[in-house]
Each structure stands twice: as structure tokens, then as C-alpha cells.
Amino acid sequence: MQAKFRVKRFSPEADNRSWWQEYDLSVPEGATVLEGLIKIKEEQDGTLAFRRACRSAICGSCAVRINGRAKLACKTQIRSQLKRDGVLTIEPLQNMAVIKDLVVDMEPFWQRLERVQPWLTPAVFNPDPDREFIQHKEEVDRYKGAATCIMCANCYSDCTVLEVDENFLGPAALAKSFRFAADTRDGIARRRLRGDSDEAGIWKCVRCEACVEACPKDVSPMDRIVALRSAAIAEDFTDNDGARHAEYFLRSTRATGRLNETLLPLATAGYSPNRILGMAPTGIRLALKGKLPFPIQRPIPGIDEIRRIMELVEQEPEVESK
Amino acid sequence: MRYAYYTGCVAKGATPELHYSTVRVAERLGIGLSEMESASCCGAGMITDANPEINIALNARTLALAERDGLDILTICNVCTLTLMEVNKRLKGDAGLLEETNKVLRRVGLEYNGTVEVTHFLWVLAKDYGVEHLRQHVARPLAGLKVAPFYGCQILRPSSILGFEDPTNPTSLESIITAVGAEPVDYPGKTRCCGFLVVSYHEDTAVDMTGLNIKQAKDAGANCMVTPCPLCHVNLDAYQAKAAKAVGTKLGLPVFHLTQLIGLALGLEPVEVRATRNVVSPYKLIHSIGI
Asked: What's the gap in Å between the CA of B36 and the closest CA on chain A?
């Protein structure tokens, strides 16, 4: 099989210049992108730099962008990515500085992971460290899916928030935080949830689902962020915009069956007069175009059913305990 | 072809032109819509944050209402699409959860048996109705419009739930743009995020994201954009002035709802698709192509 690799190069030795370089290669049908890169390095161009180690989607080293999306080069077959013209583009991961060619500086990624304290902090002092810490299957199931992260940084690269906001903790670190917050052996879950609820944390996620798509291990980072949000609200970490925003959806649906878009931003801002004043220009622009619904709204038909269902779900645990 | 028509909240609130133009376009194309007037807000994922069980129960009710009428659900909002599809998939795949949910639904005289499908108007046109069929209805080809498609996130990702097309290289919007006689413009931002979800509390982040996408569309030669999602529309259109400031350049790119673009091609007048409601006025552009 013939393929053309279009690779984004960058060299600090060549005045920090970046350029596209094309390599034609002949590879077996099932060859992976990593096998292609290794072939180029061995047979055509020893100066091409990229990271790799295990070649079997375990170590997470060979993450690059293939045709614009972050993927593990070793887990991606060339054939599946070849465009009609037989070309495939390879670029370094995004949201990190390039060191050389496809090698990026992962320092900001590691720093964020460190911030969520990615290790178990036991709830109780274990007087006998030689004894096992028993966990039941149901307890392991709560975090198992998030524990499979191989820290390849695919999600970090494709995160659309990190592209514009370098303060965000990002999908990998938050998924890691969930992994420990959901662990029954961990003693600082509340502290984790408080930390994740701050400015840089869970409420910055825009739910673009790019991390879910990019993750090669089905960690589904965004779903972990959502789980952290519900856990944080359940633990009463609600004095922030994100939690107020989420809770207003519930209140509005209970009141009328629908979302009251005019009152939503006011509730999110905690009805702060200064912030409401700041919203006025946008509000006026929308109102002039008839896009700001009247704030007092009638309930929709079926509201009794909606309220009853919400009530029943909220009572459910008590019903079961009887 | 008839659907239970789930408008979502935004098409009845901040983007009434979307609901209005959808009804007109469906009429012209002969697609029957039975509006689900008693269906609740889908929760847009935010109810999930606040109370995951209520999210499932309320959306299960919506699915049960459609099932009672023997109809599949048609949405016009990406977020409603994903939220309803996600709950539907969980209910269909987990008999225990379905039974627990039905225990609640039965108390209000409803039951869900997992027979409903959820689809988006874009998908209906691109596949079930068919692009060729749509083309036959085009009375006024929109030659001269260079349209940048903006898909929005929750009609593409996660593909494990939505799965209509390749989330990296989608083509459904392009096929419709071509069918209405306009020219699709390719640009990197077409599958990226508008940032709407945080616009009311991290406005800077949201307008930065929106600005990047519109700028890319403009740099690629587009003279307008189209989106199948009302939330993307709010950001791309109503927040465009702020987005322009964020990226430090003039933008001025009219943004159509999918049904507005199609409506114009079917021969509806701009006022019939409520183009008057768009914040970035599309009139100059529309006039320039002779409408």
C-alpha cells in the first residue's frame, strides 16, 4: 500500500521554523501510523523526532494529531486515515509548546495532574500496612473506567477550552480527580470536590465532547467532569456560578416545565446587581430583536405531571427504605 | 412522514425565528410535525449536573409521550438531540433502569417501552427525506452564497451515542448547502465548539471560542454561516460583536439557522423565515443575490 505522510516539522535549530514535509512510503496493508513514522525515520529521514515506546496503546507516548484529531499513532491504522488523495497529515498535539517536530512539552499537562493530588489519601490510618485494603466489586466499579487513563494527553490536546483559556484544569486532571474522589478508600473526597469547584475546575468545561471522542481508553473525561459536578452539588458546593446555573435549570423546569432564558443569567450571577448591570447591553441588543422572552412565563400543559415526576424521583430513596 | 416535534426551549425563547422557519419549511416539504407542547425542557445536561435521576425521568417522560402517539421525535437543537438520545440509549440498554423509571412514569399514567427513535431535522433532510428530494423543491437556488457550515458539538460527538456521521469529517450540512444551490466553504472550525454553555458565566472563554470560529470561516472566504443548533446560533450571531472584539477584527458574518437557509431556497420570503430577527442582518447579503 502506498501512502503519503504530510508531517508538520519544527526545529529549534532552524530558527524555530515550522514547515510541512512530505514522505512517500510503501507499507503493508494493516500498518499503523507509528510503523509508518518509524519506517520514515529508519529509511528516509533520521532527523524526524517523535515519541514512542510500547507500540501497543499502553504507554501513551505516541499521541499525535492525525488529520487534525489527537490519536495514538500506534493504535491507528494508516488505511483508515488516508484521504482520497492518499495523503495523511500528522501534527504535534495542540495546547502545548512544540520542542521538536512531533514532540511537545508536556510540563503543563503534568502540572495540572499534580494539582488534583493524583494519589490515594486513605480515610483511616492503616495500622497494619501488610494487610490488604479490601474493596468490593461495586466500589471498584465506581471509578474503574476512569482509572484506565494512560496519560497520553489526547484529551488535553483536543480540549476546546484549553485552546483559549490556559487556566482550565483540563479533562485529564479532572478525570483523575474523579478517579480518587469516587474511591471509597480516599479520605479527602470533599476537599477534592471543593477544589474542583473553583474557578479553574469543573464548571469551565463547555461539554464539547472533544475529550470523549479523543480518549483512546474510553475514560470519557467529560462524563467524569459531569459526575464531579453532581457530586459537588450533592455535597453543597453550590456557591458558584456553575452550580447556580445547573440548579436554575431544575428550578425553572419545576416552575414552568421549560427553561426561562431571561432569568437564567441573573440566577447564575447570584442576582448580583453589578453583574446584572454588566449584562444590560447584551440584553438590550437581544430585546430589540425580539430575542429576549418576557421574564414571567406561563407553565406549559403537562406541568402537573412534570412536577409530580420530579417529586417522586426526589422521594425515591425514602420510598425504598420503607 | 410525521414526527413528534420537540422544539426545545431556545427555539421558543431566544431564537423564535428557528421554530417559525422550521414549521414553514416542513409545510413546504410535506413533513408532518405534531408539536409536543407538553414536553419539558430536556435539561441541556445541566439538570444532569444538578440531579441525574430527574434528568432520566423527565426525558423518559418525553420519550413516552411520543411513544403513546406512535411517533419518533424530531428535534431542532443539538443539545436536545444528544440529551434525549443519551437517555434513550441508556433506557433501551438497561432493563433495570427502564423498569425503575417506569415505576415513576406509571404513577402519572405513562410507560416507556423503548420503541422511539430521536432524530434531528438535519439528519431527516440529509438521509430520510433525502438531499435529492430536497433539491426538487428548490425554487430559488442560492447561488452567490458562500456558506460556512458550523455543526456544533452535540450533533457530532460523542459518536458512540449520535453516530450519524464521522465526527471529524461530517458532510450532511455541506450536502444540504449544495442542494440549495449555495457553495459550502471548508474551514478548521466547522466541527469545533462555540462555547455557549459557559457564555453566561465565563463569557470571555465563550466569545474567544466563537470569535476564532467565525474568523476562520471568514478567512476561508465565507460570506455567511449556517448552523443546525440554536445555541450555536445565539453565540455566533447575538454574541458576534463581542466575539469580533475578542479576536480583534471586524466580522459581520450573517448566520442562518439551517431552516432559514432552506426556507429562502424554497422560495419563502426573508420575513417568512424571520430573517428580521437575526442580530447580524443578512439582508444586504440576501439582496446581493437577488432576493
From this structure: 10
